[in-house]
Design brief:
Helix content: 25-40%
Distance between the termini: 142 Å
CATH topology of the largest domain: Beta-lactamase
Radius of gyration: 36 Å
CATH superfamily of the largest domain: DD-peptidase/beta-lactamase superfamily
Oligomer: single chain
Largest sheet: 7 strands, mixed
CATH class of the largest domain: Alpha Beta
Structural class: alpha+beta
Length: 635
């Protein structure tokens, strides 16, 4: 019995030893196989250090491939304090090269951190400065690649693009709105050190940074260049308080160009105040639109069957009395008897008061809502305003009357462009957007394609839209918009002259003058809106100031978008001061004397000898302005 007890105890002890042994084996297996990666990483982190390498921010392109936001490669200075043996010498030499006080460098050198980025003194260093530091060969002093945002066209698209901070983070504009796409992933140089930070003699590991995604805009470079040029000319010529312009494709909401003044250079954003940087006037400024708003009243009246533009007549005696308030026409004495088509051509306020009366406040304000006024358009930019409308319950006869011709309501330029686009494109309101696609930099793979977004359909019928286009074409050919007429092309548009308000009262001699134009009038490809805040040294009318500038932009857009000439449309009714256009006749085969007689409306320039015309430029059939040159080649 005693022996059996001993054997049993031995077996229990052996079993315990076996269990312990198996537990140890399983634990070792778990550590070596299952937990290896995790524990190896933890161990590695104890003696490995990372020097960060900044990725390039994604580039921004126009739709036609022009870089408007790129990158420059610079360097930044980093210290590993424990590796620096003579800190006093390093502080003296580095401060001398950077041109800063020695104490600023010492603050970094004597910190107890494992790695110290010299900020801001050692950020975005030029190659010249970096070479001087590198030539010192100090232990613990590192120069790392750093990417600096660069805008090659300076002020162009400044409010659209925005700018980035010193750490390449987007702070405004598209740089902020699309920061998560544009920002890349940091890489690093991994080196190994002991607990005190002393460098161990082991090979370093390079982890390549991953660049951000590229963005392509809807903006056309040539149209944008035209807008920028014209706004600069406006500032030089008229010294306004502000100016802004938008070009948009009315058939999908794509922004073809946008800019405003004052603007800034995002390469040197620190030199500007926050108001200048943050106020994109084309989407932020909220103001009374004036007569460009009449397009909405016109569209509603036609769509509701409240007016026959050709047959209905209206007598304008110079003013109209509404509930005791006298509302004047811009023309002293009025326009007299006119059709409602002429009411639009003449931009006659009393005539539009009548259209507003026929519609009634509920119907007019319903269309105002449908066309997108009083709320943000939803464009992919920050800083957009929503405008201000009358509360319908507080709209009386006077408020209805003034709203009908664009007074007493507050809108943005972007709202005007999107609403007018809906009026002329068949009745579809699109959400405007400025980003076309997001693309992977290396492969060109499209990560995201921005499709047109329909906000509302059938605001007006196709028939109404066609009538609106015809009417606005006649405004340019026969009415107040004649300064936007382009010979050989069908242009529609509307002028606007809005008196500014200050502390609830209208200011004397201080207006926002505007013009909105589109072409071709029979099949619009582009809408251009321009507003100028208080231009100096000129009579402030949208038709005389803004219309010819929009014409210049549209002429550039004709080339940029390859828009062909159109037949038909409303022929311009010339005034004595207008530039007249004539067709060039075919004079090939005629004598020099005969050709001169045929081309008497032009300046004729001869090249070659002989008496017979063998060729001409421009060729027969082209229309040019009276007095322009026709070159004749004799032989």
């Amino acid at each position: 019995m005693f022996t059996k007890g001993i054997h049993k105890r031995i077996r229990i002890v052996l079993l315990g030893i076996l269990i312990i042994f198996l537990t140890i084996v399983l634990k070792v297996f778990y550590i070596e196989v299952i937990e290896y990666k995790k524990l190896n990483t933890l161990a590695s982190n104890l003696w490995s250090r990372n020097l960060p390498i900044e990725a390039d921010r994604g580039k921004i392109f126009t739709v036609d491939g022009e870089v408007v936001a790129g990158n420059l490669t610079t360097t930044s200075l980093v210290f590993i304090p424990n590796q620096i043996k003579n800190k006093d010498l390093v502080a003296s030499k580095i401060s001398e090269i950077l041109g800063v006080d020695k104490s600023l460098i010492e603050e970094h050198l004597y910190k107890s951190s494992m790695m110290e980025r010299v900020h801001p003194e050692g950020r975005r260093l030029s190659y010249e400065v970096a070479d001087k530091i590198e030539s010192l060969n100090f232990d613990g002093v590192y120069l790392l690649k750093e990417s600096k945002r660069y805008y090659p066209h300076d002020e162009m698209l400044s409010h659209i693009l925005g700018y980035v901070g010193i750490d390449n983070q987007g702070l405004s504009g598209l740089e902020l709105e699309y920061d998560k796409y544009l920002t890349g992933e940091y890489g690093s140089i991994q080196y190994f050190s002991d607990a005190k930070g002393n460098n161990l003699e082991r090979n370093s590991v390079y982890v390549e940074p991953e660049d951000g995604l590229d963005i392509y805009l809807t903006v056309n470079y040539d149209i944008q260049s035209s807008i920028e040029r014209e706004l600069d000319n406006i500032v030089t010529k008229y010294s306004p308080e502000g100016a802004w312009a938008i070009a948009m494709d009315p058939n999908n909401g794509e922004i073809l160009g946008m800019s405003s003044r004052p603007n800034f250079n995002p390469n040197n954003y620190q030199d500007y105040d926050t108001e200048t940087i943050n106020r994109n006037m084309a989407i932020w400024a909220s103001y009374e639109p004036g007569s460009t708003f009449k397009i909405l009243t016109l569209s509603a009246a036609i769509n509701e069957g409240k007016v026959d533009l050709i047959n209905d007549t209206f007598y304008d005696g110079g003013s109209v009395n509404v509930d005791g308030a006298r509302i004047k026409c811009w023309k002293a004495g009025g326009h007299g008897a006119q059709t409602f088509l002429e009411v639009v051509q003449n931009s006659c306020n009393p005539g539009f008061v009548e259209l507003g009366r026929r519609l009634g406040k509920e119907t007019l304000f319903d269309y105002i809502d449908k066309f997108g006024y009083g709320k943000k358009t939803g464009i992919d930019l920050n800083g957009e305003a929503s405008g201000i409308l009358f509360n319908l319950s507080k709209v009386g006869p006077v408020e209805l009357a003034t709203t009908s011709f664009g007074q007493g309501v507050s809108v943005t330029a972007l709202q005007q462009v999107t609403a007018v686009s809906a009026a002329i494109n068949g009745g579809t309101l699109y959400r405007p957007h400025i980003v076309k696609r997001i693309v992977e930099h290396e492969t060109g793979q499209i990560i995201e394609e921005v499709e047109p977004k329909v906000v509302r359909e059938n605001i007006v019928t196709e028939e109404t839209s066609e009538m609106v286009r015809m009417t606005l074409e006649s405004v340019v050919s026969l009415g107040t918009g004649r300064n936007a007429y382009i010979d050989g092309y069908r242009v529609g548009g509307k002028t606007g002259t809005a008196q500014k308000v200050n502390n609830g009262a209208y200011m004397q001699g201080n207006y926002i003058v505007s013009f909105i134009g589109f072409l071709p009038a029979n099949d619009p490809k582009i809408v251009v809106y321009l507003a100028i805040d208080n231009p100096k040294g000129i009579t402030q009318y949208g038709g005389t100031v803004s219309a010819p500038i929009v014409k210049n932009i549209m002429e550039d857009a004709i080339i940029a978008l390859d828009i062909e000439k159109q037949d038909g449309g409303t022929e311009k009714k010339y005034q004595w001061y207008d530039k007249k256009y004539y067709m060039v006749e075919d004079v090939v085969g005629l004598t020099k004397k005969e050709a001169t007689s045929v081309l008497k409306k032009f300046t004729v320039e001869y090249t070659g000898s002989g008496d017979k015309v063998i060729s001409q430029s421009p060729e027969a059939g082209n229309r040019i302005a009276e007095g322009e040159a026709v070159r004749i080649y004799l032989g």
